[in-house]
From TrEMBL:
It comes from Ananas comosus. InterPro entries: Bet_v_I/MLP, Plant_def-hormone_signal, START-like_dom_sf. The keyword Transport does not apply. This is S-norcoclaurine synthase 2. Residues 31-129, 177-299 form the Bet v I/Major latex protein domain. GO terms for molecular function: abscisic acid binding; protein phosphatase inhibitor activity; signaling receptor activity.
Length: 309
């Protein structure tokens, strides 16, 4: 199984200034200095920050996730401000991942502002596919949160299912109905306030008491594009709006690869006020990624099950 996540952060800094950190070893050094609760140590195994450089990153004891990993810089593009590093030892490789790549892109907007785009791409074997929910861009954006106003995170899941079969779920109310049925430890109840699944439909999602996050949220479907297989829903009550977010939108896209395979792309876009900017680190794709995984598994199981007599 393959997947990816990305986060974009608009900042009031020139791209060149940001690249002086992201394009060099200063990024790892500053991460240790500014985020000691997340990164304990960053040792240079060899290299000077160029392609081929290997770092050994050690995380504080007791933190969720791996204790360490080694990463190798495979791309440092000083012209286009793109840097890529792959994990070569430890880390998520110990959890069944066959590859794990982190990409940083600094995108110029104008002379005084730019976008920090942080992406993770991974592959994981089928036996450990459930561990894909551990992947998050949270640690990549902790040190950016003071500037956060707008942001987005996305997750992509490759599936061996035709687009029409997936859209029959994602493009209708069947999506939330199955989410409640297949994820009873997360979604307690889904109620339709009004509508039949088209634009303007409003639903209320109640989450299981005791789990982190809001107790419930109301969503309005603002886009249901059956031709291009794109659906958007924005939170209009409760949810992350309780934590200082001014807007919170989820987008689902079913992208055709060939007749028998497609990609589920799940994106969260948000805006948050300055006073609560630190809460931007709470945004993850965990829920939408888990939904994509269980929906894909459910549909595959349905296809492989013998017809009832």
């Amino acid at each position: 199984m393959k997947g990816s996540l990305c986060h974009e952060l608009e900042v009031g800094l020139p791209a060149g200034e940001i690249w002086e950190v992201y394009g060099t070893l200063r990024l790892a050094r500053l991460a240790v200095e500014l985020l000691p609760n997340i990164l304990q140590k960053a040792d240079i195994v060899h290299g000077d920050g160029g392609v081929g450089t290997v770092l050994h990153l050690t995380f504080p004891p007791g933190n969720p996730g791996p204790q360490y990993y080694k990463e190798k810089f495979t791309k440092v593009d000083n012209d286009n401000y793109v840097k890529e590093a792959v994990v070569i030892e430890g880390g998520y490789l110990e959890l069944g991942f066959t590859s794990y790549l982190v990409r940083f892109e600094i995108v110029k907007k104008d002379g005084d502002s730019s976008v920090i785009r942080s992406s993770i791409e991974y592959e994981i074997d089928d036996e450990n596919a459930g561990n894909a929910s551990f992947v998050t861009t949270g640690p990549l954006i902790k040190d950016q949160k003071k500037e956060a106003m707008k942001g987005s995170v996305c997750h992509e899941l490759d599936t061996d299912l035709p687009v029409d079969e997936l859209w029959a779920v994602y493009g209708t109310l069947r999506l939330v109905q199955l989410a409640a049925e297949l994820l009873p430890n997360i979604v307690q109840k889904v109620s339709t306030v009004h509508g039949d699944g088209e634009v303007g439909t409003v639903i209320q999602v109640n989450f299981v008491p005791g789990i982190p996050g809001p107790p419930y949220q109301k969503e309005e479907f603002v886009k249901v594009d059956n031709e291009n297989r794109v659906k958007e829903a924005k939170v209009i009550e409760a949810g992350f709006l309780l934590f200082g977010f001014q807007s919170y939108l989820m987008r689902f896209e079913i992208v055709k690869k060939d007749n028998d395979s497609s990609v589920i792309r799940s994106t969260v876009e948000y805006e948050i006020d300055d006073k609560h900017a630190s809460n931007a680190s709470l945004v993850t794709t965990d829920l939408v990624a888990t939904i994509a995984q269980v929906i894909a598994k459910y549909l595959k199981d349905q296809k492989s099950s013998p017809p009832s007599s």
